[in-house]
Amino acid sequence: MAWDPRTNQTLKAQAFDFLQNLRKSPNAWLPCFELALRKERPSEIVRHACLDIVNHAIKAKNIDQAGLLEISRRSLDYVREVYTPGQEIDSIAIQNKLTQTLTYIFAATYQHLWPTFLRDILATLHSQTDGDGTVLYLKILIAVHEEIADVMVPKTTEEQVADNELKDLVRERDIQAIAASWQQILQQFRHSSDIVNLCLGCIGRWVAWTDLSLSINDALLSLLFQNLTPLEPDPRTQEVALETFVDILSKKMPGPDKLQLIDVLRVNEAVSQIVSTSALSSQRRSSQYDTDLAENVAKLVNAVLVDVVKVIEGSPRDSSLVQRAFRNLQIFLPHLLRFLSDEYDEVCATVIPGLTDMLGMMRKLVKTDAYLYEETNMMLSPLLDVIVAKMRYDNTADWGSDDAQTDEAEFQDLRKRLHLLQLAIAAINEEEYVGKIDHVVVNCFGKGHKDWREQELALHEMHLFGEYAMKHGGLYSKSKPVSPAASRLINWMSEMLKSGRSYLLNSGCMSRIY
Amino acid sequence: MTDIASSSHPAVQLQYMELCVRYHVIFEVYSQYISPALENFVSLVHRDHPKTQFRSWYLLQRFVRSVRPHLGNVANIVVQALGDLLPIRAEISAQLDSDEDDGPGTRFSSQLCLYEAIGSVSSAKLVPEDTQVALMRSVIEPLSIDLSSNIDQAAKGDEKAQLQIHHLIMALGTLARGFSEWTPANTTTSPPASAVAAEFKKAAEAILMALSQLKHISSTVREAARFAFSRYIGVLGSQILAQLPQWIDGLLTNTSSRSEVALFMRNLDQVIFGFKSEIYDILNALLTPFLQRVFTGIGEVTTGTDDEIELAELKREYLAFLHVVLNNDLESVLVSEQNQPIFVLVINTVIHLAQDVQDYRTAKLALTVLGRFVANFGGPDVVAQINGAKTNGVHVIKAQLPGFDDFMMRRFSPICWSMPRNAAFDVKDAQARLALGEAAALQKAIYHKSGSPYVSFLQDSELTSVGMDATHIADYLQALTTLDVKGFQQYFKVGRSHLMLEIQN
To answer: Do the chains contact at B43 and A448, CB–CB below 8 Å?
Structure first.
């Protein structure tokens, strides 16, 4: 009655009051519980409200042991009956409410009263051949994670302690079975993208607090891979699969383990596979280019870079670890270049944070490590090539028109970020940066017709170069250039200035002036 | 070799100009590139792409300014080439917000860059004088004619005509600013040659004509005129003096705001300082009406904080004006036949301001000015300065103004205590302590001019009336007569403030 919009106000108020009282009353939960799960189902609203009251009671610890046992038994019976093939299952809303019920029951009983909770739920729900039971099972697992392991939720110390206890128990008792169930699910329901995504989401969350070696094995990986590059592109599944990779990857662990994980997950292979799919390769320059997918893969590449750099910076003096980690960077360089050079600026921007971290690390370490110095230098040139290429207005850019204004502003933002990368490279190896710009400028002032974009790029780079070349505010000091970089800039400027003369003297312009 | 400047793409053209300005130092070494670059600039400012044109004018002005020391005799070419871009057409903006009329980014504000650039190229050292004269005339004449032709319409209230006049005056002023950066304080350079100055004088006359007819009608015209006035000090040299009464008449109307008066006074100070040896007669003639105008402004009621701030500004400019007069040996204008009547009023106002506990900055300034009065009118030192300090700080020792010594003692000296004795005086405020220091310096100054009569005066009447007992008095006089200025200032600040607190309580 309370929710029925047609009820008149006073009745409504009374109804709300009644519900409030129910909530507070210590024994209301039982009749509510029975009402909710009754074979002749009352209306949605009523069931929902009843479960809400029950959940509240469990969470508030208003139910005694006997009551909890009773609820546990009957809930299990209920799901066993209802979630068999052929039966009419609950609506999504009720499922979610029921999930909450079971989760609260878990929290209250797993330790002592019902230690086999997870196993029982698994057995009951997962054994079915259709997916509904499995869906509920996975939802429960996810809800359990959110209840006891979600780091974003603020908890009191007592709550933390209780949660940690539960986590320990899960790891002790049931994790193996659960991990095995994930594999089965991914295999059994591999054609159902909803279930696959749900399962991957579950895995992605649980890996943060459970032993990876249980969940990650070849079988799982190959299933993950299948989802990354399905026969028919399925954006949602691919996205979830990629997110799962990132989730697994971002788990905190010591350096060597992290490198191991990257190997084990075969991330490089995964990325290569996806990149070579048509969505990202042959379609790249077409309007069918799947930019969302590109962005998601770029996120993965970026995550790898960030992680590997962290490993190196965590133990810079462990040279074998550093070298091992560095090899990963080299392996991922082609992927980095692929996405950094992507025509879509959002995709390009996705890998900039990882690249920035990497360059920062290189600057710090090349001074002391000869091996790194060599290896780093080999990477700088291709990186700089891509960066400078991105600096250039692309061929579709329409400079100066009114509707290009936001694009223009975004492009200038990107240019600023790219220049920071240029400066980062210059900090590692000045000649690399200066040499590259020199090449761009000389090319621009050289023979032959030049597209305005080339010219604009050269001049823009010269403009940016000034800050780098001018130390303490000037290009000259006592009539001499302040630095080699300043000398170069002065040369470029004189090239630019030299070139104007002959044209203007010959062109029609001058007759007006003289 | 491809060249950049011939690129037809506006983005490239603009970058070319930006780089020339950003790295202009290069032209000091490669001065042979200046002419070709300038030619490019002049050609590029004609490209009318909406995204680049205004910015290109600004860049031209920046470029010219930075390479001017190395510029050759290119003014003719440049001015001719820019001719088609110079005509000014005022547009009333469609929006109600009239700040748009000459805000940054409008065509007009960018045109001002062109005028400034023209001024700059024309004043390059290698440009012969007669060329300079001819060029300035060629630019100024059309503007003056346009100006005159709009006056009648503007006087009738036509907003567009008023705005046009504003723009024209601004252009004339900006032209002058570009031409000459000389100010009276500058001893390393000099104002333009008098033949050139004569052209600017004609411009000034046109401006004054407009000003006289429109001064009550349009504050934007007054604003433009004041801008022009401050720039014309730099180009007219002493020729500005003869025009001074007209400028004052036009800029200081009874509708002028306090801040207008204050700003004008700042310029006037420059003129006085710059032409101190020539300005006596003019200053003498206009002093009284000018001061009356200032007093009106000071006396007006204030409504609100902005008003209060402007009032404080005006008071300080007034004191600064007196200071400039006194500092530059012009003090006799204050007591000349024409201005003697107002002298007492001037003194009284300064005395009044010296006691302002709400505004220590102003009080301190006023006390300084009183000190200057003592120095200029108190005659030669009767008692030698201690530690060989310079006398007065002025160059010429002047005879004492009759009756002034008595005046100093009875009117100035008591002021030194009125502040500390005021209950609202905050001895912890740093500015307040500075003011106390000036009060001490004033006493010292009076002492050195009067000698023992002053000591007696202090001993017999003033110090006792303040509330000091005999020991304190003796102590005080000892300090006054034996310590140098700095020492006495210290004594006064530390000792007197304590004593005053005691007396207050």
So the answer is: no
- Selection from A389-398, B60-69, B437-446, B495-504 with the highest mean pLDDT: B60-69
pLDDT in tens, A284-327: 778 878 888 899 899 999 999 999 999 999 888 888 888 899 99
Contacts of A446 in chain B (CB under 8 A): 1-2
For residues B402 and B469, the answer to whether their CB atoms sit within 8 Å is: no
In the A/B pair of chains, how many CB contacts fall below 8 A? 115
Chain A closest-CA separation from residue B71 CA (Å): 16
pLDDT tens figures, B78-98: 999 999 999 998 887 765 444
pLDDT score, position A514:
34
Q: What is the widest separation between alpha-carbon atoms in chain A?
A: 108
| Signed CA dihedral, B402, B418, B318, B180: sign only | positive
User: What stretches of A3-156 show up as alpha helix (H) in DSSP?
Assistant: 9-24, 29-37, 44-59, 65-82, 92-109, 117-126, 131-148
**Contact by Cβ (8 Å): B378, B408:** yes
Of the partner residues A399, A476, A507, the one whose CB lies closest to the CB of residue B11? A399
Instruction: Give the count of alpha carbons within 13 A of B102, CB side only.
Output: 20
Residue of B nearest to A511 (CA): B81
The three-state DSSP-derived secondary structure of B94-109 is CCCCHHHHHCCCCHHH
Taking the Cβ of residue A499 and every Cβ of chain B, the question of whether any pair is shorter than 8 Å is answered with yes
Rounded to whole angstroms, the Cα distance separating B60 from B78 reads 11
In chain A, residues with a C-beta closer than 8 Å to the C-beta of B13 are none
Per-position DSSP letters for A220-267, written without gaps between them: HHHHHHHHHS-SS--HHHHHHHHHHHHHHHTS---HHHHHHHHHHHTH
Nearest partner of B179 among B41, B276, B28, B61, judged by Cα? B61
Residue A338, both tokens: 């692929």
Q: What is the mean pLDDT of residues B112-138?
A: 93
pLDDT in tens, A391-439: 999 888 778 777 777 888 899 999 999 999 999 999 999 999 999 999 9
Rounded distance between C-alpha atoms, residue A390 and residue A386, angstroms: 6
Q: ipTM for the complex?
A: 0.78
Q: Are B122 and B135 in contact (CB under 8 A)?
A: yes
- Whether A14 and chain B come into contact, CB under 8 Å, resolves to no
Percentage above 70 pLDDT, chain A: 91
The verdict on A494 touching B (C-beta cutoff 8 Å) is yes
Contact residues, chain A, for B10 at CB < 8 Å? 399-400
CA separation for the pair A290, A239 (Å, rounded)? 12
Nearest to A232 by CA among A270, A191, A261: A191
Chain A residues 442-481 with a CB less than 8 Å from chain B: 444-450, 452, 455-456, 459-460, 462-463, 466, 474-476, 479
**Cα B353 from Cα B337, distance rounded (Å):** 26
Say yes or no: A512 contacts chain B, CB-CB below 8 A: yes
Residue A401, min C-alpha distance to chain B (Å) = 9
Q: Can you give B248-289 as a three-state secondary structure string? A: HHHHCCCCCCHHHHHHHHHHHHHHHHHCCCCCHHHHHHHHHH
